[in-house]
Amino acid sequence: MKATRISALALMTAAGLATTASAQELTIAIVNNGHMINMQTVAEAYTAETGVTLNWVSLEEGVLREQVTSDTATGGGQYDVINIGMQEAPIWGAAGWIEPMDFGADYDVDDILPAMRAGLSHEGTLYAAPFYGESSMVMYRKDLTDAAGVTINDNDSWARVMQAAAAIHDPDNGVYGACLRGKPGWGDNMAFVTTVVNSFGGAWFDADGRPQLDSAMWNQAVNFYVDLLGSYGPPGSEGNSFNEILALYNEGKCGLWIDATIAASFLEVDGVAYAQSPNAGVSAGANWLWAWAMAVPTGSPNSEAAHDFIEWATSKAYVQAVGNHPDFGWGSVPTGQRASTYAIPEFQAVAGFAAAEMAAIDSAAPAASDIKPYVGVQFAAIPEFPEVGSAVAQEIAAALSGAKTVEEALADAQAAADAIMQEAGYY
Amino acid sequence: MAIVAQHSKFSKIAMPVLAWVVALIFFFPIFYMLLTSFKTDADAVKPEFLFSFTPTLENYTNMTDNYDYWRFASNSVITSVSATIFALVVGVPCAYAMAFDPSRGTKDILMWMLSTKMLPAAAVLYPMIFLTKSIGLFDTHFLVIMVLSLINLPIVIWMLFTYFKDIPKDIIEAGKMDGLNTWGEIKEILIPLAWGGIASTALLTFIFCWNEAYWTVRLTTIDAATLSKLIEGNRAPEGLFFGRLSAVSTAAVGPIVVLGWFCQKQLVQGLTFGAVK
User: Fold this and answer.
1) What is the pTM of this model?
2) Which residues of B touch A242 (CB under 8 A)?
3) What number is the ipTM of this complex?
């Protein structure tokens, strides 16, 4: 009788353990964009195979940053997997807020594009796996440039871009020469402006962290930006960012647009051609680099399962799963993360922008250099950057709208950035 | 005389026309959102498909299949209804005491309560997050109900106080003479007399709770996330997902628009309380 009872207890315990194992849940915080939304459907196969239930928390970029930062910094444990960007990954890795990534041999970590690995690492350790990545490039209407008798080439000079914009600018017929980000924000207007500054040989900070906004390079770059957008941009450009310009472009109102490579997959006008970002003599840093990556917060109670999920979601097999999925197909696969994706014939057949995108990502230079003594292209991977970038963004938007001269705006921006960096104890 | 006649003739035609124009201007964003919710994301941004397009239910099926709409909706119902009830349970006795048995400090207390609405919510966001996480209340219905109740309590008390002030004190005192205790006065006299005011207060509070987004987005993850969080999660910085966003927004505001339509008399009464005295 006693033996029977013990056996029954053992069976119940085993059943209980099995239930616990199969009932594992992961809470995943994701940024709302097409690739991430598709993942929720594709991941149904992952749940079916592993038994791991996935709870998705989809958030707008700003709210995601706010929630994930407060949760991770305090070890809150609300999320098992988080979407973070290239600005956060090295900082959070250094702070010990996220766990280092460690993959099996099958994962082929060397297939991840080198620029992405560099941007998501701290002191050589990868802290987040890229889910999709992007750079920036010129997307122009070849029918308009042909009609105007101008050409746009890879890595043109800014002067030639200005000429092309002037030639195709036809506001009476609703076509504006150049559409560029003008909305204030460190990830909005400053993403583009920073690449222009980089291409003029400028940088945000010197090696001591002192802001360089009063340098001649910033002056030249911002004057050029204000001239180009003020003369040949759509009215109200200081309110335009990615989505606003995407809408204008698809309405046929933009001659050329320099922005994230992912835009190419949303363009629905005919005759779009691509070129590598222009520069003013310095090509390093003339096109930006960004990735939405997946990381495991140090406080996650399901760390092992979280790592397993990331290994699946950022693998070559995931790309195949999206490409072969009846609801999506090869035009919807996440790009900018793995070299092997660009070698898939089915993907090449549907993505006319693939070669230009990969070239742009490959040429991006996120590592610190003599000119730019910090990690990051269109941002500096330091905790103070969002605050500095936001303050400067307001000043640049004021210069664009005509509320201030470029010189006044840069002087005020320098003062604001200087105060923030001094308070942070850099010097 | 002729001028008066002309004036009234003009008013008879022009005023209703003007009212319709204003009403249509106000209604257009909701109509546009409803229309867009039946378009694909690609069609939603093309001007040529503004009114002429092939309608699709894709956005709605996507919302229920991939976004678990019903979980968010049930959380909104649970938290809004509970918060409204709690705010009334606290607010009615409080307003009763202030209206019928005021002390020297009543006016100051009322002003102080109103002043709490002036505190920017962002100022206490991080303390709230840290505190609620440390005591295990983060992302719970209880927390959302408490927060929604407390942020609306000043408005509830002020509205009820204003309604109660219109009830002659003699009627309440007559009840006392008839041997009613305080609870009896509230139950037998006050609530039946002020039922209209209490109903419009409840309706407005429910609408405020349903629409609240700042706290419900930031103090929840999964378990207590409301429809505000569902809408927030569909905003995208890169990509024009207007069809999908419109479907989610329509499904989120739909119940409250229908409720408002049926209860518009009470709502107008509530919104204009104290305006004509």
Assistant:
1) 0.79
2) 237-238
3) 0.70
